[in-house]
Specification:
2 copies of one chain form a homodimer. The first copy, chain A, has 3 domains: about 45 residues, lambda repressor-like DNA-binding domains (434 Repressor (Amino-terminal Domain), Orthogonal Bundle); about 120 residues, 3-Layer(aba) Sandwich (Rossmann fold); about 130 residues, Rossmann fold (3-Layer(aba) Sandwich). Chain A is about 45% helix and about 15% strand. Chain A is built from 13 helices and 12 strands. In chain A, the strands form 2 sheets. Chain A has a 6-stranded parallel beta sheet, with helices on both faces. In chain A, strand 9, helix 12 and strand 10 form a beta-alpha-beta unit. The longest helix of chain A has 17 residues. The first copy, chain A, is elongated and about 90 Å long. The interface between A and B is large, with 51 and 51 residues. Chain A binds a DNA duplex (16 and 16 nucleotides) through helix 2 and helix 4.
DNA sequence: CTGAAAGCGCTTACAG
DNA sequence: CTGAAAGCGCTTACAG
């Protein structure tokens, strides 16, 4: 292994001079010496040892991405997309990314963040219940995504889930639907809760009631979908699912039973995944800008890494209707 | 920051004794001392510094996952699934995972592998052209996936792509299709090339010819799909796409033009993603076991990390037909 | 612009 | 079963 010392000896200078060259300390090494050292470095293929660097500088060029959801977090196209984008934004800044997948077992998170002395961490998925403790135990820059924690001074990037719910309700009602169903009822996820709240409030404003029995949990089993959407005495004509993936599952079950979307029943999704554009029918959905969200999360993190003391900020991105073909206009009956 | 030294002082022993306790060196510390030290460790929340450990031991508990495909590698549900599974298998072994996303820029890979002194690396995606150099520059355990490099002593986990192509051709022909199209022609990807070769060979064995003009590149633009599958003077009746995602895109374009699958034209995919089970029609496809592949890659890597000198091995998983609803039986004409 | 000294927090290799 | 010494490969903080 080629070391600093070796380069220094070959160049006839001290290790400090080589150290200054590789760290690009400006105006501290003569151009001539710098050039000579650079030559020797590339000739011998010297690569600095990050462990030694981090140990002596008591810092690291490492960022952790902590993703909650078990070994299959990345089954969700949303999460996968976030991870991919965050990874490349982090690398663009010359940092490396450690990926920690956890399954609601926060115990380990602090330990791992500490042992690697990471400069900061981004959290993906539901962490609200452990958030307070995580922040207390880790006095490094932490950026959460989609958090609804009421902690003050939380740095977070989220979207306007409530507004998304409103838009969906409005769109369905504008198309004449008043018997509505909601898929994504959840006691744990504030994200889903807000989408539901926005949906219900927008219904109410328009004199439409979302019946309790027409709500389904996130990822409902097929028989429950059938019971609520097909076999009910008075089945709904419009369905809002809180993710595109679930919306497609709904459409699939519906179509297994001979119902056509949107002729017989309208379905909306949430996320605007690529999938929705190639499905049959093309999915009408609420778009969120995943790449932007990833970019902001990384930017915020580095702001806090580079300028400790930067005020906490909670950035909320807006959300838009993408009209495609899965919502039909209901004729007056 | 709590250090070894601090724990040692509190316990009234040397740092070596504490070091032995945290490294679980058996039968080297009296039970009593061990218990006392453990108490102090958990009381003070001591976490060993991985950098110091790695520096002095000249090793690390780090594995790199190098994924080729740019900032959007994880758009591919296949890659996303591999990353998720590899991540959790690596963590199960007490190692941490660094995720390196690259975009055909292998220059940097060696530098990053070195600077972090990783114990080993898994490669995801197309690396064959740079593989030789990567192996030469990095004398650590390296596991490739889906490689068709002719390098001897390559450790790789792949699937029988050729057989997958054969199965697809056989299934279409068995269902009466003789005018076939292939989507996934590629000059760069040996994986796709093998699927095509298997497909063509199986056709030929059955006296069916795959016409050059009925082959489409991977991810074909819509107008090309139309030209080959719709507007041709004698359009094909059966299409094999080398990924489920592309198969769904094909079906989407077809259906935009009023063609029904499988009534008017049959379509097969490859991978057996969850997607295929919820699409309309449900996709007939070739299944590969992604979780198993990820598991084997991690197992092989750790075998080589733990026992240097373990012989290289190229493991090839089989592939299976999953019959659903996108292939129809062609009536005799 | 350059360098000698000390130290980051551990482990290795010995010695007892 | 326990410990003193040396060292991993860098950077920090000074000094000149």
């Amino acid at each position: 292994m080629v070391t600093l010392k070796e380069i220094a000896e070959a160049a006839g200078v001290s290790v400090m001079t080589v150290s200054r060259v590789i760290n690009n300390v400006p105006a501290k090494v003569s151009e001539e010496t710098r050039a000579r050292i650079m030559d020797i470095i590339s000739e011998r293929g010297y690569v600095p040892n990050s462990f030694a660097r981090s140990l002596s500088s008591r810092s690291s060029r490492l960022v952790a991405l902590v993703a909650n959801g078990g070994n299959n977090v990345l089954r969700s196209p949303y999460s996968a997309s976030m991870v991919g984008h965050i990874s490349s934004f982090v690398q663009e800044r010359g940092f490396s990314l450690m990926l920690f997948t956890v399954d609601d077992d926060y115990e380990d998170v602090t330990r791992r963040l500490r042992t690697w002395n990471v400069a900061g961490a981004i959290f993906l998925g539901l962490f609200d219940s452990a958030l307070k403790r995580i922040r207390k135990d880790n006095q490094i820059p932490l950026v959460f995504t989609d958090s609804y924690s009421t902690e003050r001074q939380l740095t977070n990037v989220g979207i306007d889930d409530y507004h998304g719910g409103e838009i969906a309700a409005k769109h369905l009602i504008d198309n004449g639907h008043t018997k509505l169903a909601f898929v994504g009822r959840s006691a744990e996820s504030p994200v889903l809760r807000e989408r539901m709240r926005g949906f219900m409030d927008a219904c109410q404003e328009r004199g439409v009631t979302l019946l309790e029995e027409r709500t389904l949990p996130d990822n409902p089993p097929a028989d429950e979908i059938e019971r609520v959407l097909l076999k009910a005495s008075d089945p709904p004509t419009g369905v809002f699912a809180t993710s595109d993936f679930v919306a497609l599952q709904i459409i699939s079950v519906l179509s297994d039973h001979g119902l056509r979307v949107p002729e017989d029943i309208s379905v909306m999704g949430f996320d605007n995944l690529e999938l929705g554009a190639i499905s049959r029918p093309k999915l009408t959905t609420i778009k969120q800008d995943i790449e932007k969200k990833a970019q902001l999360a990384v930017e915020l993190l580095f702001e806090h890494i580079q300028k400790p003391g930067t005020p906490a900020q909670n950035m909320i991105l807006d959300v838009f209707l993408v009209e495609r073909a899965s919502v039909g206009r209901l004729k007056n009956t």
